[in-house]
TrEMBL record:
It is a multi-pass membrane protein. The chain crosses the membrane at residues 9-30, 101-122, 134-158, 178-197, 239-264, 284-307. SUPFAM superfamilies: MetI-like. Belongs to the binding-protein-dependent transport system permease family. GO terms for cellular component: plasma membrane. This is ABC transporter permease subunit. InterPro entries: BPD_transp_1_N, MetI-like, MetI-like_sf. GO terms for molecular function: dipeptide transmembrane transporter activity. The keyword Transcription does not apply. Keywords: Cell membrane, Membrane, Transmembrane, Transmembrane helix, Transport. It is found in: Cell membrane.
């Protein structure tokens, strides 16, 4: 198990190094002068030169990358020139919205998808299976921002059960914060639940044809027990793969949803930073998202090993 973990961590670190190079390079080749865009077309040459000096734009590309990457290693993400504050503080302020939102969406997605996948697999070829998979296909096809607009109209405008947008902060109470994040979480969760339900059904159908499942049924084990205790566990590897990918997608996919619901999260921070050409903020947030993806993938690999002990020797 130790060798298994060491190998996964080494791959994760290599991924972070490659990702940092790609992120830095992509933002470097974006056309336009960041100093000119930030100060405007009427800025004086002296002001532009001072800002370029402050931003380090007059240094060689390699020196800028090494300085930026070295800062990441010690938790120094640089300083935002738009907000005049350290990037790590901006990320910490916004993460208390985006992270709970992504976790809520992941919990809702899993709570919906696995029972639906089990329900459809147990009734393969029947009307209930067709109906469930038809609904899942609809969920895959429809973008999450469309769900967001429908949810706002129904539950915020028409029924007036939850706020249509904004976030008052966790200091006003846990219930208030969860109410503000409920509709965004549902809008994020529904398309992902549709994907996960289809994967769960397919994995279960493959497992249900195995000999040990037929043996369990022949021994008189109840159908529900066969599905939950035997079939689902052995079908979990593809399901865990999708869950790991979904958390990363949910965390990164909050850009649209946070703007629809006017939430002060990481997604809105990235959107504003791109608009204002605050590249140091964009680089910091993107690398944080990459690191979260790598971390989640390592956790998923550990879950693989727990579900299937044969993987621990690879």
């Amino acid at each position: 198990m130790t060798a298994f973990l060491a190998k996964r961590i080494a791959v994760g670190l290599l991924t972070l190094i490659v990702a940092s190079i790609v992120v830095f390079a992509v933002l470097e080749i974006v056309p336009g002068d960041p100093a000119q865009l930030m100060l405007g077309m009427n800025a004086t040459d002296e002001a532009l030169a001072a800002l370029r000096e402050q931003m380090g734009l007059n240094q060689p590309v390699v020196a800028r990358y090494l300085g930026w990457a070295g800062g990441l290693l010690v938790g120094d993400f640089g300083r935002s020139f738009t907000y005049s504050s350290p990037v790590i503080e901006l990320i910490a302020e916004r993460a208390v919205v985006s992270l709970p939102l992504a976790l809520m969406a992941l919990i809702l997605s899993t709570a919906i998808a696995i029972p639906v996948g089990l329900f459809a697999a147990a009734r393969r070829g029947k009307a209930a299976d067709t109906l469930a998979m038809g609904a899942a296909q609809f969920g895959v096809a429809v973008p999450n921002f469309w769900f967001a607009l429908i949810l706002i109209y129904v539950f915020a405008v028409w029924l007036r059960l939850v706020p249509a947008g904004g976030f008052s902060g966790w200091e006003n109470g846990l219930i208030s914060g969860l109410r503000a994040l409920l509709l965004p979480a549902i809008a994020l969760a529904l398309p992902q639940a549709a994907i996960l339900a289809r994967v769960t059904r397919s994995a279960l159908l493959e497992v249900l044809g195995e000999d040990y499942i037929r043996t369990a049924r022949a021994k008189g084990m109840p159908r529900g027990a066969v599905l939950w205790r035997h079939a689902l566990r052995n079908a979990m590897i593809p399901v865990l793969t999708i869950l790991g990918l979904q958390f990363a997608f949910l965390l990164a996919g909050t850009i649209i949803i946070e703007n629809v619901f006017y939430l002060p999260g990481l997604g809105r921070l990235v959107f504003q930073a791109i608009t204002q050409r605050d590249l140091i903020v964009v680089e910091g947030v993107v690398m944080l998202l990459v690191a979260s993806v790598v971390f989640v993938n390592i956790v998923v690999d550990i879950c693989y090993a727990l579900v299937d002990p044969r993987l621990r020797t690879r």
